[in-house]
Amino acid sequence: MFDIERRLSNLITVGVICEVFVSEDKHTAKVDINGMVTDELPILSFASKQLKVSTPFETGQQVVVLFPDGGDWGVILGSLYSKQIKEPSIFEEGVYGFEFGNGTKIYHDANTNETNVITSGKVNITGTVTINGDFHVNGKITDSKGVISDLRTVDSDGDTYQR
């Protein structure tokens, strides 16, 4: 009876990642649970044949671990919001997104059908880009030959023309 109670009480537990292992074919971690360190455990991921999402876990991150048999083998289910991992700054119904440690944010608001990318870095797109709709730029437009914005002139009436 004691073994069954122990296994049930250890079925789901919370711990802190103490070591991370990343390779081409797997992402695992060791977890410290009340002073006892697990073996390498796999990390549950959001993945299918068509979509893979990379969310590397870090040392010191608080996680929930499932031990299906109540014993030694387990899987890391995910992390919990904590002092180290704060909730996203935009936490609203219908708003889906990503926030990165460097401040970059990518959000889609299903309520307004608007997508926002906020970054202080560069955004690179490789491939053909088609824009169906208005295109607004607040800043310079540059191509491989130079600044396209410099080709515009403004006449005395304030109208803008291409040179």
List the SSEs and their pairings.
Layout: H1 2-9, E1 12-22, E2 27-33, E3 36-37, E4 41-42, E5 62-66, E6 75-79, E7 95-99, E8 105-109, E9 114-118, E10 142-143, E11 146-147, E12 152-154, E13 160-162
Antiparallel strand pairs: 1-2, 1-5, 2-3, 2-4, 5-6, 7-8, 8-9, 10-11, 12-13
CATH superfamily of the largest domain: Gp5 N-terminal domain
Distance between the termini: 87 Å
Over all CA atoms, what is the radius of gyration? 25 Å
Mean of pLDDT: 84
Largest sheet: 6 strands, antiparallel
Report the strand count.
13
Any idea how many domains? 2
Give the overall shape: elongated
Output the number of helix runs. Answer: 1
Using the 3D structure, state the CATH architecture of the largest domain: Beta Barrel
What structural category arises from helix and sheet content? Answer: mainly beta
Order of helices and strands: HEEEEEEEEEEEEE
| Spans where pLDDT lies below 50 across 5 or more residues | none
Query: What fraction of residues sit in β-strands?
Result: 25-35%
Walk me through this protein's architecture.
This protein has one helix at 2-9, and strands spanning 12-22, 27-33, 36-37, 41-42, 62-66, 75-79, 95-99, 105-109, 114-118, 142-143, 146-147, 152-154, 160-162. The protein is mainly β. 5% of the residues lie in helices and 35% in strands. The protein has one helix and 13 strands; from the N terminus they run H-E-E-E-E-E-E-E-E-E-E-E-E-E. Strands 1, 2, 3, 4, 5 and 6 form a six-stranded antiparallel sheet that branches. The protein starts with a helix and ends with a strand. It has two domains: 2-79, Beta Barrel (OB fold (Dihydrolipoamide Acetyltransferase, E2P)); 95-149, no CATH class. Strand 1 (12-22) and strand 2 form a beta hairpin.
